[in-house]
Structure formats: C-alpha cells, structure tokens
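Predict the 3D structure for this chain.
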Amino acid sequence: MGLSNTALTVLVLLGLALSILALYLLVRVATREGTKTSLRTLPPDKQVEALVDTHAKAIQRLEGAVRKLAHGERQLGELAKEAIRHVGVVRFDAFEDMGGRLSFSAALLDGNGDGVVITSINGRQDTRCYAKRVQGGTSIHNLSDEERQAIRDALEANRQIVEAS
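Done. Predicted structure below.
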C-alpha cells in the first residue's frame, strides 16, 4: 500500500505543525520560573536558537523519511504494473446442442496489456483448454471472437479504473 502525494504532503504539514507546537511549549516551559533544564543555563537568545536547531534537525529527518516513503511508493507502483491487474471473462456455448454457457475465455493481463488468454471449450464427451500469450492486448496466435472479447473486456476495465481515478 502506497501513500499518495497528497497524503505525504499532509503528513509533512502535520509534522511541521507538531514541531512548531512542541517548540512553543518548550520555550514556554524553559522560560518558566523554577525550571531546571540545560537550556536554562544559556542566555535567552541562545535558548531559542538551540530549540530552533533541534527542531530544524527533526524536520530534516522527517523530510528524509517522507522522501523514502515516496521512493518506496514509486517502486511498488512499478512492481504492480507487472502483476495481473485486469481480468476479462466471456462465457459462451461452444456447441448448439449444449446449453449452460459452460465454455469460457478468460484474459489475465498486467498493466501493460501483457498476459495470457485461457479458453476452455466444454463438450458432451470432453473439455479442451487452450492458452495463448497476449502482448500489448494482441496475440501472435489466431484468436476467437470470445478471446478477443475477453481481452477487450480486461483492457476496458483498465480504462474505466483510470478514468474513475
């Protein structure tokens, strides 16, 4: 699961706001009468400077962590392109004397339209299965109408998801 750029921006802004709040609270506590902190031994202008430096370092660490998260999200996105992401299934009657639409073609495609289309033709005496490689939404093998439809359905589902995003 990756975080979107918007979510990462919100996290950075939230971290910045919390750092500013912590800085305010630390300055307030450090300037109170009777507090014994190492900052108290410094002159007032150096106290604020030390607190600002501490929080600047914390913000830099947070920015580094956000950059790492964004890089990890990009890597996961690249890996996901190669995973099966789109499936199209077409059921049909292969023979006129057979009902129930027991035969099917199923396209299993990745984000680039590469994968396989599997067809199972069910008859009274036997069932035959065929697998054909698909690259870029097409195949070097002859495709039946049902196989082409299964590939179209898988690729169309991909377009619908992209349009909805």
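Residues 73 and 82 are 15 Å apart (CA to CA).
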